[in-house]
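Retro notes, item 3 of 5
We never archived the inputs for the BJW complex last cycle. Fixing that now. Sequence and ligand:
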Amino acid sequence: MKNNSQSDAIPLPPHIGDALATARSVVVLTGAGVSAESGVPTFRGKDGLWRHYRVEELATPQAFARNPLLVWEWYDWRRGLIADCKPNPAHKVIAGMEQHFEEFLLITQNVDGLHRQAGNRQMLELHGNIWRLRCTREGTKIENIEVPLSRLPPRCDRCGGLLRPDVIWFGEPLDPETLAKAWRAVEKCDLMLVVGTSAVVEPAASLPIIAKQHNAMIIEINIEPTPLSRLVDHSITGRASVVLPELVKALVKE
Ligand code: BJW
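Structure as it came back at the time:
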C-alpha cells in the first residue's frame, strides 16, 4: 500500500492511469465525503453530524417509534440543507465514468441524491434516499421534494399512516435485492474505487474486502486513513473533488 501526502497537487501512484485504462469492470463505492464539498455534512469526524446529535435518538427504528416528530424535525432540517447543494467535481467525474467503462456500477451509501443529479444511472443507493418517504402502515413509497415539509410528522394521503424517511437506520436490514446486486458486482469487478467513506458501517464496509478477495485492485480516496487503508492497493490522501479529476487526467494521458 502506498500513501500520498495531502496537498492540492496530488502525486498519483505510478501506472494508475494504466490500471484505469485496462479496467473492464469498475465499481465505485462512495460515502459522505464525496458530498462534503457540496456542503452536505458527514456523519463522523470533526464536523460530523454524530458530534452534535445522538445516533440512537435519531437514526434508529426505536428512536422513530419513540419520537417520530423529533426524528422528522432532524430529517426536515437535513433535507433543507441538501436542497441547496449541487453536485461537485467528484460527483461529475463518477458520472462520467459510467459512460467510459464496459461495466460500471456506483454503490453509494449517500441518501442525498446528488449522484443521480450528476447523471449516474447505473447505481445502487444502499442506505435509501432522503427524498423518498415510506408509509409505515402500507409500505408505499412516495417521492417527495417538499422543503420544508408542510406537515410534521407527514402522513400517508391514502391511508393516514405515519410516513418515515425511506432510509436505512442502524439495526435495520438493507434491501436484500440491492445488497445482492452490490455483492455480485464487487465479486466480479477488476477495479474498485472507495471514495469518501470512513468504511466502518457494515455491510457496506465489507464490500471492498470482498472485491479484494476476488482479486480486484482497490484504490481508496479519502482525506484521512480509514480501517481499509492498510488493506487496499493504493490509498490516496486528498479531497475527492481534486483526486478524481486527476485520476481521469491520468487515464486520458496513458
Ligand atoms: C472525505 C472528504 C473529502 C470527508 N474527500 N473524503 C458487523 C459488525 C459490526 C457492526 C455491525 C455489523 N453488521 C451490522 C452492524 C451494525 C451496524 C454497523 O455497521 N455499525 C457500525 C457503526 C459498528 N450496521 C447496521 O445496523 C446496518 N444494518 C445491518 O447490518 O442490518 C443487519 C440486519 C439483518 C437482519 C435483520 C436486522 C438487521 C445498517 C446501517 C445503516 C447506516 N445508516 C446511516 C444513516 C442513513 C440515513 C441517513 O442519512 O440519515 O448511513 S448511518 C451513516 O453512516 C449513514 C452513512 O451512509 C453511513 C456511512 O458513513 P460514511 O458515508 O462512511 O460517512 P462518514 O461520516 O462516516 O465518513 C466520511 C468520510 O469521508 C471520512 O472518512 C472522511 O475522512 C472522508 N471525507 N471529506 C474525500 N472532501
